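Encode chain A's predicted structure.
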Amino acid sequence: MAYTSEDQAGTIKKAATNAEIAALLIDDMKGEHAAIIQYLQHAYKIGDESDVSPEIEGIARDEMRHFRWLGELVVEFGGDPTMQRDPVFLDGPSTTDLLSLDVEAEQRAIDQYRAHIEAIDHPKVKLYLERILMDELFHQGMFKGFISEMGGNPEKKVAPEDTGPWNQDPNPASQDLELNAGGQAVPADLEAEGRDDHPLVKMLNSRIESEYETVLLYLHQAFVSKNLDQRNHLISDRAVWHMTHLGTLSEAVAELDEDAHPNMELDFDEPFLGQAPTGPEEFNRWATEREQGYVQNSAKLIALAEAESEEEAESLLADLKRIEGHNKFQAAQFKLPE
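Encoded structure for chain A:
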C-alpha cells in the first residue's frame, strides 16, 4: 500500500524517510498529470464558445511545470517518477459544470499539498510544494471567476464524493470519466454516440494517443537519464514539441467533430514505459525509429486531409506539414551525439 500523509485517525503522519517523501511526491505527480489532461480537454471542448479556453490552456502549462518539478524531486529522493494519473473528467452537462469540476480538482490539490507540506520537513521540498500551492489557490480563483462571468454559481458542487480521488482513495484508477445529466460519474466511452466516426478524426485520434504516450516516455527518460545533455534536450525541446503537436491535433479533432474527444487515454495498467530502453544511446536509437514512424504517419494524415473537401480539413494541412517537418528534424536530431 502506498504511503499516505494521513493515518487512519485522519491526523498528519510525518514522512520520515526519503522513500516516504518520494511516495507523497508521486501522489502529487498523479494529481498534476490528471489536471493537465482534464484542463486541456476542457479547453478543447469549450473552444470558441468562450474566450476562457486560452486561459485554461495557460493553467495547464502551469501544471506541466509542477509535474516536472515533482518528477525531478522524486528522482532526487530515490523514487521512480510515475506516469500514472488520477481520474479525469472529460465532459459534463454544461460549460459551467466543466469549470466546476476544475474548481473541485483544484480543491483536492490544495488540500493534498497542505497535508504534504505539513507531513514533510525537508526545506527544499517544502519550498517547492508551497510554491505549487500558491499557484493552485490562484488557479481555483480563476476557475471560479470564469464561472461567475458565465452567470453560474462558483460554489456549486458537481462531482460525486464516491468517485476517484473524491473518495480519498490514495491510489484511484487512472480512468476517463464523464459527468452525466443526472450528476453521476460514468466511464467516458470515446466510441459511444457516434463519436470518432469521421475518418480523419479517427486517424488524428490515433496519432494523438501516440503523441501523448511519446510525451510521457520522453519525460520519464528525462527524469531518469544519467546523461545531462539528453535530459535537458528531452525536457526543453523534444517532449515540448510533441506536446505542441498533441495540442494542435486535439484542437483539430474538436473542430472537425464536436462530439469527439481528443484521445488521451492509455492503458496505464500496462507497463508502457518498458518499451523504451533507458540507456542514453539505446534510447536515442529507439526514439529515432519512433520519429521516423511519425514522418510516415504525418504523410498519411496529409494525404487524408488533402482528400477532404471540408474547410476545417483544408486549414489543418499547414499544421500537418509543419508537424511532418518537425518529425524529420527530430529523427535527425536524435542521431546527433550527446
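The chain has a mean pLDDT of 90.
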